[in-house]
Design goal:
Elements lengths: L2 H21 L4 E7 L5 E7 L3 H6 L2 E3 L24 E5 L5 E4 L2 E9 L10 H14 L2 E15 L15 H6 L1 H13 L4 E6 L5 E6 L4 H21 L2 E4 L13 E9 L2 E2 L12 H21 L5 H4 L12 E3 L6 E4 L10 E4 L8 H17 L18 H4 L5 H10 L1 H7 L1 H17 L5 H7 L6
Parallel strand pairs: 1-6, 13-14
Antiparallel strand pairs: 1-2, 3-4, 4-6, 5-6, 7-9, 7-10, 7-11, 8-9, 11-12, 11-15, 14-15
Length: 450
């Protein structure tokens, strides 16, 4: 079959899909893309325009990638008022999400249809391919923490909170049952939904998936959480720290790597069964941690969460089931049905998830390629270690941005344009809130990532 006939078949399939969605009650088709501030931006069309959204895309200025959490724009040497990108929808991820809407992720593309060098989703896809070329299969999972707040962002009142408690579930049962049903209807593989430590804080844990699919699914999950909250006259805060003195929200990422079906974090002769390749992956993630911190947790709010004693992983080390280590190791045991994996705890919801996942996967691959040694494990609380000063994560925002800007690893993983844009966005935040106290910052950005 020639290319023209193939294109005609694809167009016919897309038109049929649009008709099917319309018959199912879908009116609005929403495509989303993340900017470097971690905010979900969107374009929407009537569902009948599905084919156009996929084939030619919807226009977006290159400045979309450098929109900021306060809605400012952080222009760079390569991103200004001229030029245009196209947001091209990925129909393979298309889902009906209720409320007469359907959703799919988009890629930032050039006018000729090729992915833009500015596209974070494309960078993650390239690293997923790089892993496959090295004979490695990557799976990633996500844990999404969030706080329910009033529609205006104010704290909720009316009941006492029990951390991880049944009383808390009962108090918000209408929201939680609606959320469970909505996630199931959208085909999201939620594995766990529970009350968290902080007041009106909850967590949704997602099943492991290939990296791009994981990030797409996590973004969809955040959208669905917001939709369900709105149905109940609530809002949801994905801020790293919604309220000063309260609990922070993480967006923990899990990573497993397998070669020829064998998990590199199990079955070896290293600690807890870690193989030599698995040890090198751990070494790579820790070696790149400081350089990539501004990708994992780079917002002006992030450093307020990254403190010892908060289980945010504010120590540059790894340890078995160690919740104070930046990299928590989960061994292959009967209690771990997904097998041995790494959990990166420092990632928060202000991150561009595609870039954070790319940084995590890319630094692990870098460690394997360089055959880095497995660092010594830290057992117990790193803050109580004799090496606590060396292990403590330097979360000062300006320094983290300087390290990202100068990092050869970041340049290899993301390219110069993404690094420049990501640094510009976060420096805009620092300038916008210079001199402001924590109360002012958290209040201004409480709903920025919602």
């Amino acid at each position: 079959m020639d290319a023209t006939a193939h294109d005609e078949d694809d167009a016919s399939d897309l038109d049929a899909l649009a008709r099917s969605l319309a018959e199912a009650g879908v009116d609005l088709l929403v495509g989303t893309a993340l900017d470097y501030a971690g905010v979900t931006r969107s374009k929407a069309v009537p569902v009948r325009r599905l084919r156009s959204f996929v084939t030619s895309g919807m226009g977006a200025s290159p400045s979309w990638v450098v929109f900021c959490a306060d809605n400012g724009i952080a222009f760079t040497s390569g991103i200004g008022v001229s030029g245009d990108l196209r947001l091209r929808l990925d129909p393979s991820r298309l889902r009906a999400i209720g409320d007469a809407m359907a959703w799919a992720p988009t890629d930032y593309c050039e006018q000729d249809g090729t992915r833009s060098a500015l596209c974070a989703r494309g960078r993650l896809a390239e690293l997923e391919d790089r892993a496959a070329s090295a004979g490695l299969t990557a799976l990633m999972g996500a844990e999404l923490e969030f706080a329910l707040v009033g529609a205006d962002g104010a704290p909720l009142a009316g009941h006492s909170w029990a951390a991880y408690g049944m009383r808390s579930v009962v108090a918000r049962r209408d929201f939680l049952t609606d959320l469970t049903r909505t996630l199931e209807d959208a085909g999201v593989g939620a594995e766990q939904i529970h009350a968290e430590y902080g007041t009106d804080q909850f967590e949704v844990s997602l099943a492991p998936l290939p990296p791009v699919e994981m990030a797409d699914t996590a973004i969809l999950t955040r959208i669905l959480i917001g939709l369900v909250a709105a149905r109940h006259d609530l809002a949801v805060s994905f801020s790293p720290l919604p309220f000063v003195g309260g609990s922070g929200n993480g967006m923990h990422l899990h990573l497993s790597l397998a070669r020829d079906g064998d998990n590199v974090f199990a079955g070896g002769d290293g600690p807890h069964g870690i193989t030599r390749a698995g040890g090198s992956a751990i070494g790579g993630v820790l070696a790149g941690l400081s350089d990539l911190l501004a990708v994992y947790a780079g917002s002006v709010v992030s450093s307020l969460r990254l403190t010892p004693g908060s289980w945010s992983g504010a120590a540059v080390c790894w340890g078995l089931e160690n919740r104070e280590a930046a990299l928590r190791f989960l061994a292959a045991t009967p209690g771990n049905p997904h097998g041995a994996n790494l959990e990166l705890k420092i990632v928060d919801p202000s991150a561009n998830l595609y870039l954070a996942a790319a940084a995590f996967l890319g630094s692990a691959l870098d460690g394997i390629e360089r055959a880095l040694p497995l660092p010594d494990e830290v057992i117990g609380n790193p803050a109580e270690s004799v090496e606590s000063a060396r292990l403590r994560l330097d979360a000062e925002p300006s320094g983290a941005l300087d390290r990202l800007e100068a990092s050869p690893l970041a340049a290899r993983l993301f390219g110069a344009s993404i690094v420049e844009g990501a640094v510009a966005v976060r420096r805009h935040e620092l300038a916008a809130f210079a001199g402001a106290d924590a109360e002012t910052i958290t209040a201004a950005l409480r709903l920025a990532w919602s």
